[in-house]
Design brief:
Strand order of the largest sheet: 10-11-15-14
CATH superfamily of the largest domain: Urease metallochaperone UreE, N-terminal domain
Helix content: 25-40%
CATH architecture of the largest domain: Sandwich
Number of domains: 4
Largest sheet: 4 strands, mixed
CATH topology of the largest domain: HSP40/DNAj peptide-binding domain
Order of helices and strands: HHHHHHEHEEEEEEEEEEHEEEEHH
Number of strands: 15
Shape: elongated
Length: 370
């Protein structure tokens, strides 16, 4: 007994043309013989859903089927659905069938190809990253052969059209019910062959060499930034342009400065008497020493900003600031005289001398009373 066409496609009798087509596409991909080699049941299902789609996708045939069922195509009522299921499949999918089953449609003869870009990781000293630098690096890369100038042929000879694919770079092979194209194995899809390969590069057109390249590092670069040197990658293939050289920056840490963006941070020890009385201290900057005036009563952890003493912006927009973190140093290894002077100083101190201590004791009083 013939199966119901709507049930075969898994759609209701009220399904639209788009719904019918969508259902057919899904089932056709599932049961296609080239996806199920040797599976007779899948092949039979493929034929059945193709017949169902042939009828239900045609308005006239669908009306006849809805009125008479399978009898609509027997006797003198109408032509029986007997189209080639693979023709129906091709009409629906077009060239995308090659993408679906064989990883891409028919390809044309290969042309010029750009060379690959290369990556080089470059270590810079902190000062080089801040002020910029000129560096020379040595890289291995593929370059056009000097003997054949990239053609792959011995001097005096040239490439000729591949007679296997007639220059298309593709050959046709029968697979299942299809004739499909794939890259020509004789010319590797190039459409040309070399009768007399260059003896230096063995027909490749390129050879590996080591090249010394000057790299200009702009001021203000930081770890992770990239400097592109155009045209210094590998040579192109078949006359294609060369790739680029990508230099990835890595900056070594500094003993004094810590960097945050374009700003610099450093910690400066200050004697306790200078912090108490105020005065000038010498601080290092990337441009040399600078005088910093600190007010009397400066505490550890206070930060002073030195404007425009940071790193030049790699984008050319001014430069950052330097942040000086004060670290008040308590004296050690005191002499007897120094200790006596400190005791005398302590005897003169009251709450006004240590206001922060007084505030702390006021807040912590309840803890000391228990």
């Amino acid at each position: 007994m013939a199966k119901d066409y709507y049930e075969l496609l898994g759609v209701p009798r009220s399904a639209s043309a788009d719904e019918i087509k969508k259902a057919y596409r899904k089932l056709a991909l599932k049961y296609h013989p080239d996806r199920n080699p040797g599976d007779r049941a899948a092949e039979e299902s493929f034929k059945e859903i193709s017949a169902a789609y042939e009828v239900l996708s045609d308005e006239k045939k669908r009306r006849q089927y809805d009125q008479y069922g399978h009898d609509a195509f027997t006797g003198n009522r109408g032509a029986s659905p007997g189209g080639n299921p693979f023709d129906i499949f091709s009409q629906v999918f077009g060239n995308s069938v090659f993408d679906t089953f064989f990883g891409g449609g028919q390809r044309q003869r290969s042309g010029p190809e750009p060379g690959a870009s290369l990556r080089y990781d470059l270590q810079l000293e902190f000062e080089e990253a801040v002020f910029g630098a000129e560096r020379e690096i040595m890289i291995p890369r593929a370059e056009n052969c000097d003997r054949c100038h990239g053609s792959g042929c011995e001097p005096g000879t040239s490439r000729r059209t591949c007679h296997h694919c007639r220059g298309t770079g593709q050959v046709t092979m029968a697979q299942g019910f299809f004739s499909i194209s794939q890259p020509c194995p004789h010319c590797r899809g190039q459409g040309e062959s070399v009768d007399s390969p260059c003896r230096d590069c063995q027909g490749a057109g390129r050879v590996q060499k080591r090249k010394r390249i000057a790299v200009s590092i702009p001021p203000g670069v930081d770890t992770g930034m990239r400097v592109r040197v155009a045209g210094e990658g590998e040579a192109g293939v078949r006359g294609g342009p060369p790739g680029d050289l990508i230099v990835v920056i890595h900056v070594r840490e500094h003993d004094i400065f810590k960097r945050e963006g374009d700003d610099l941070h450093c910690e400066v020890p200050v004697p306790f008497h200078t912090a108490a009385l105020g005065g000038k201290v010498r601080v290092p900057t990337i441009s040399g020493a600078a005088d910093l005036t600190i007010p009397a009563g400066t505490q550890s952890g206070r930060v002073f900003r030195l404007r425009d003493k940071g790193v030049p912006s790699a984008r050319g927009h001014g430069r950052g600031d330097q942040h000086v973190h004060i670290m008040v140093e308590v004296p050690t290894n005191l002499s007897a005289t120094q200790k006596q002077k400190l005791r005398e100083f302590a005897d003169t101190c009251d709450d006004r001398v240590f206001p922060n201590l007084r505030r702390f004791l006021d807040h912590a009083k309840k803890f000391f009373e228990t």
